[in-house]
Design goal:
mainly beta; 20-stranded antiparallel β-sheet; disordered C terminus
Length: 505
């Protein structure tokens, strides 16, 4: 029985190491001279008359993070010739489980913008972008990891498990306005179109331990939408997957509509301080086209894998056959009906302090809501913003109940082309593991990683109009240092003199 349960838990651990938990990259938040910072706060506008992101190259990104890190799973022996996992001993397993949150969140986000345009006119800023996003997420409840410790006849509830994958297009219309020399506000209306969806919704999911097997009782739905469909067998059980018809027109239509909103504000006083707040991706997609769902209900008994899983020439085929045999124990039937799926909203709260004319320090709090999980990060950064050749920052990110890591941004401008690269939460240390004759390296605390690159064409002489610390346009002064002094209140307070002092002068 222990062997059976250990294999099940090992599968969960492997899934945890290969799926990803998305954290929207916040490294651009204090980089207004990179136009894509407007995606994080629509109140921010770049210091250019207008810009255009090169089609297909303006914003390409992939983001990764994970509540289960390699250090949670792999442990080097004292002798240095063996690697242990949480399945090697009860002590290691308990230590592994005690480090887990209530929901171990796993997902991945990848995206590309086909077009990105912005235009600034006096106090108004207009933007438009169109692109595609793919987001997948999995939530593993803490109760799932209680299975190895189940006593005879005991059961656990794992209905909080979540699995979903979504592909959609996003057309965003943005507007920003400088209310006065201190305050700027902005918002975006995003028209969404769902392209593909796959997800699991469990009304009931329990696992019970018996003498030689585990029994899973399930009542839930498998939901799909896209150029494929599946059929259920309510008599013999099991599922059959079928390819549908894919048309390139599906990439550009609005068959599964959705809507999302972004809001933001920026307040920069006459001192060196600035304050920022924004909410992004507040919305959902309504799936009504090409919807195909299967209701899954019943119980299935699993007696475990045998050695063929590890020593068979085709272990993947063997595992698939075992999975199919389990599915055939459930009764399944096709159902119809539209459904909706939400995005993962983000909240940003930040402040900055100007150290030098082009250098400021920033602090940012970032919260993300996804399914039944709230994730939080705190980011500290040193940001260099210039109208010339180079822009960049270096930042330190600390996750709540998660490892910390470094990141940075580099933007190079060769008029009128701007190339930028942003890397967030880069691990700076690696661990080497030796198991017999094999050796492998894994990054330390590798719980997240984000990479973003893009090319922009920027136009308008930023030197002809100076944007002061409050974000409003002012006439250019004699020098950039004078512009900075004019925007920050460094002047000495006036002193009222009496008549006798005036006579002495």
């Amino acid at each position: 029985m222990n062997k059976i349960i250990k294999v099940i838990v090992s599968v969960c651990c492997v899934v945890g190491l290969n799926l990803h938990a998305q954290d929207q990259d916040a490294s651009l938040f204090f980089m207004p001279n990179i136009p894509q910072s407007n995606h994080l706060n629509p109140a921010l506008s770049p210091n250019y008359n207008w810009y255009i992101g090169l089609p297909g190259l303006s914003n390409i990104y992939s983001r990764y993070s994970n509540d289960i890190t390699p250090e949670d799973v792999f442990h080097q022996s004292a002798s240095g010739d063996s690697v242990f996992t949480p399945l090697s001993s009860q002590t290691l397993y308990k230590a592994f489980k005690n480090n887990l949150p209530g929901i171990s969140k796993l997902s991945v986000q990848t995206g590309i913008n086909l077009i990105d345009i912005g235009l600034q006119h006096n106090k108004h800023f207009y933007s438009f972008s169109y692109g595609y996003k793919i987001v997948s997420e999995t939530g593993l409840p803490y109760s799932l990891f209680n299975i190895p410790e189940l006593g005879e006849g005991k059961s656990v509830n794992i209905q909080d498990i979540t699995i979903s994958a979504t592909a959609y297009s996003e057309m965003a219309f943005g507007y920003g306005y400088h209310i006065n020399k201190y305050l700027s506000v902005g918002g975006k209306l995003k028209l969404l179109s769902g392209k593909m969806y796959a997800g699991v919704k469990a009304e009931t999911a329990n696992v019970k331990s018996n003498i030689n097997a585990l029994t899973a009782t399930v009542d839930g739905q498998l939901r799909f939408s896209g150029p494929y469909y599946m059929t259920g067998d309510n008599v013999n059980g099991g599922l059959s997957f079928h390819d549908g018809t894919f048309s390139p027109a599906m990439l550009f239509d609005f068959r599964n509509p959705g809507i999302a909103l972004d809001f933001g504000m920026a307040y920069k006083c006459e001192s060196r301080w600035g304050f920022f707040a924004s909410v992004t991706d507040l919305g959902s997609i309504f799936w009504s086209k090409d919807v195909n769902s299967v209701a899954l209900k019943g119980s299935a008994t699993f007696e475990g894998f045998d050695d063929a899983l590890f020593f068979d020439d085709k272990p993947g085929t063997y595992a698939k056959n075992v999975g199919d045999s389990l599915l055939h124990q459930f009764k399944s039937k096709n159902t119809t009906g539209a459904f909706s799926s939400g995005l993962m909203p983000n909240v940003y709260l930040g402040t900055s302090y100007k150290l030098l004319p082009n250098l400021d320090a920033g602090a940012l709090w970032h919260s993300q809501f996804s399914s039944n999980k709230l994730r939080n990060w705190f980011n500290m950064s040193l940001n260099y913003n210039s109208n010339h050749f180079f822009n960049g920052n270096i930042h330190y990110k600390a996750g709540i109940n998660a490892p910390s890591a470094l990141g940075g941004v580099l933007a190079v401008r060769l008029w009128p082309v701007q190339l930028y690269v942003a890397a967030d939460a880069v691990s700076t240390k690696y661990n080497t593991y030796t198991n017999g004759s094999s050796r492998f390296n894994l990054p330390t605390n590798f719980d997240q990683l984000s990479v973003q690159v893009g090319l922009n064409l920027i136009f308008g002489n930023p030197g002809s109009v100076a944007h002061n610390a409050c974000g409003s346009a002012t006439k250019k002064t004699n020098s950039r240092f004078q512009q900075y002094l004019g925007s920050c209140n460094f002047s000495k307070p006036s002193v009222k003199r009496n008549k006798s002092q005036k006579r002495m002068r």
